[in-house]
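Fig. S4 source data, part A: sequence.
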Amino acid sequence: MWLWLALCAAGLPAAVTRWTSMAGAFLGGPGGGLAGWTVRLLAVVESLPALMLPAALGTLLLPWLRARRVHRRHAPVEVPEQILEFTRRYAPGVAVRGHALPAGRLAAVYPLGWRRPVIAVSPALVRLWHTDRAAARIVLAHQLAHCRSGDHLLLGLASPFVLSSRLAPVLVPALGLPGLALLAASRTVPGDLVVVHAGLLLAALAQLLLPVAALWSAELAADRFAVETQGSAGMLTLSPSRSSPLGITRPPVRLRRRLATVWASPAGTAAMLAGWPLVYLLLLPLAVAIGVIGRLLLGDEVRGVWSVAAHYLVMSWPMWLAALVLIGGWPLLAHTWTRLWTGQRTGALGTPARAYWTAAALPGLCLLLSLTL
């Protein structure tokens, strides 16, 4: 999650360029008529991924507004002392408050401030605590993991970033595909322009996979902590009906239950850590296809697909370097990072360093390729 945000922040100048281009296309684009307004609509839709960064930064920089919204929308409820004792055992600096959450939502995180994470506990979780203690511990440990990682600043209740991550993957095809069809049906628009916008829509969808993959990585990492500290029995008893319908921003409970049995192994941890860089690498075929189509439309000769793939790898070297440093160095960084958010100096429990170094091999290899091409 934080890796994605750091890379987006590093690419802020490029994002500003895209926003400027979007504004120019909308205000000074083609003339009136259906075709002109369709091109404007497509320009806005294709720029939606660039708006994910301001949504994330707004969520990160204004935690107090989120807290006010949570307190206004969710009435307080009483939390048993046993739940408070359980959370203090793993993160003494994390507050626990009872809130009347929406149906199906057992618990969630939100910030009172940058270093003041809160776990919101619903009455449903209190009932689960009395009927299925193992499952309730898994839910609480999952939320504790988010707080220990600083995820409360981006995830949880009243998060504009999570909301935008849920809406953007729906809006891009819902608005882009009809717009593309209208553009193709227009007799005044050249066919090359239709193909260009089709490629840009594909690129927009591909870019939206990255924040979604980052959200999944954060959720699965929290599951790993929960399984390490509480065992997999509680995870296996969680039913899909107990999961909040958060759309594509959260892995399905069935998938999480299947993965619960492998998180405890070093190989499972390495696979989870390499997940986000792997998604970035899997976008390579799509980037190659878009690059080849673009060169053909511009009248350039495509000397080979490998040249386009090499360009993608070379331009993405900052991501590979950041992933290599973060994943490979996490055994040393975990103590400081956890203490930053919870005040407790603890690292990744029971996870050998070789699991992180194995996962770091993927971005390391890609970085080596990007620097030698």
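Fig. S4 source data, part B ends here. The chain has 18 helices and four strands.
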